[in-house]
Amino acid sequence: MATIGDVARAAGVARSTASYALTGKRAVSDEVRARVRQAAMELGYTPNAGARALATSRSNVIGLLAQFLPDEFAPAMLQYIQGVTDTARDLGYDILLSSDADGRGALKRITDSRMVDGVVLLNVAEQDDRLPVLRDAAQPGALVGFPGDCTGVDVFDLDFEEAGRVMVEHLARLGHRELILVSQPEHVIERGGAYVWRLQNAAVEAAAVNGVVLHTRYGSSSQPQIGRDLHAFLDAHPNATGLLLNNEAAAAALPTVLHERHLTAPGDLSVVGRYSDEFARTFSLPYSSIESAPDRLGRMAVRQLVRRIEGQVPENDPYVVRFVAPELVDRGSTAPPLGDAREP
User: Fold this and answer.
1) Nearest Cα to Cα of residue 65 among 126, 116, 136
2) I need a surface site. Which of 126, 172, 223, 238 has the fewest CB within 10 A?
3) Does residue 223 share a domain with residue 180?
4) What is the DSSP letter of 288?
5) Contact indicator for 218, 184 with CB cutoff of 8 Å
């Protein structure tokens, strides 16, 4: 089994420097830290967690609170988790994942026991009952998701309002005048999923400005119901020439629905979704989309959290609220509606 001395020799540094690089007890240069961590990885060196915690008052563990809710599409949530865990690993931290339905209780147990140095929250509700616990904790916290009150935490999210505007305006410029927006199930809003109404309200406003009729509908988050929902929405609005999807399950089901209806995109129906490029590859989705950036948001949250854990952010520095600007990824599923000779 490799020792800290082995790591130091492989990295060409003193034993104490190797220890500082791995534990964060004292500052070392980024170049030395990277060299030591690379040597540790190649040698398979794992520091004793108990000794490290005693020496540094840190566990080098980040708590990640996420829930796999039945009204949300689980594969989409996994992408946020992967962004957090990959970045934490790169920065020398392990992840303690809790998916306890009692998020408030789980957070208090984890922070009170000092098992973690900081916390990342996913599934953030507008009035999230975990936030008072996190604000009272000794450890810093970062959120992927935008709550009603951002006090005392760093917040990172997609700009859902701008995403709604971009989706509508893109199809309006192509000449579309009647669209359907399919959002997450309505009870996602009822339990505090503000991202649903943030995108929807902005899309409604953009439609009014651009002279577009926008039908807003809520679809299921699972098969086979979402397939039936899509058929029902298209039956109810036969003159709609564009479909906007703020529902990953709907995007995954749409190829089958269009095939069953003998429709093509963009020949019969222009389509714009809101999901990540990785999600599009996983489900072989050919539709243009707003990049939801789960990996980027996870990286941003963890990096800011680690800066606070390691004292790189002055204690009196204000907390940050940062939105990722929506990026429309063109996969060729939008075009002027049939009968409109206008060029894209």
Assistant:
1) 116
2) 238
3) yes
4) E
5) yes
Residues 152 and 93: their CA atoms lie apart, in Å, by 22
Domain-embedded: residue 332: no
Domain containing residue 72: 61-157+294-324
d(CA 286, CA 297): 24
Instruction: Work out how many domains the chain is built from and give that number.
Output: 3
Q: What is the pLDDT along the chain (344 residues), one digit of tens a residue?
A: 677 888 889 999 888 788 778 876 567 888 888 898 888 888 888 665 545 554 556 789 999 999 887 777 778 888 899 999 999 999 989 999 999 989 999 999 999 988 899 999 999 999 999 999 999 999 999 999 999 999 999 999 999 999 999 999 999 999 999 999 999 999 998 888 999 999 999 999 999 999 999 999 999 999 999 999 999 999 999 999 999 999 999 999 999 999 999 999 999 999 999 999 999 999 999 999 999 999 999 999 999 999 999 999 887 889 999 999 999 999 999 999 986 544 44
167 and 285 share a domain?
Answer: yes
In the chain, DSSP finds a helix count (H) and a strand count (E) of 14, 12
In the block, which residue shows the tokens 């709604």? 164
Q: How far is CA 332 from CA 17, 100, 216, 270, 329, in A?
A: 53, 41, 24, 9, 9
